[in-house]
Write a structure and sequence with these properties.
The protein is mainly alpha-helical. The protein contains 4 helices and no strands.
Length: 86
């Protein structure tokens, strides 16, 4: 795939995130919605990695960075986004 197609696909997916958020809001707390969303995404990614035979062994230090990245970039960011759309 060329760069333009990859960029367009990224913009389409990330740009439509608000649509998924609108469907998730209202029934449960935003934090619970995020838990559901990221649980489903992680299951899909683990299945894809298993299908492709990808190596998923990382050092403990890498896991600490993954945790920090997840909390700061995805956790807090999305909680604030969900809260702003209520």
């Amino acid at each position: 795939m060329n760069n333009t197609a990859l960029y367009s696909l990224t913009v389409l997916i990330w740009g439509s995130t608000w649509f998924a958020i609108e469907f998730q809001l209202g029934v449960v707390a935003p934090e619970v919605s995020l838990f559901y969303r990221y649980s489903a995404a992680s299951l899909l990614l683990f299945a894809w990695s298993l299908f492709r035979g990808s190596r998923l062994r990382f050092a403990l230090r890498d896991h600490a960075w993954f945790f920090l990245l997840g909390i700061l970039l995805f956790g807090i960011n999305y909680i604030l986004s969900y809260r702003s759309q209520i």
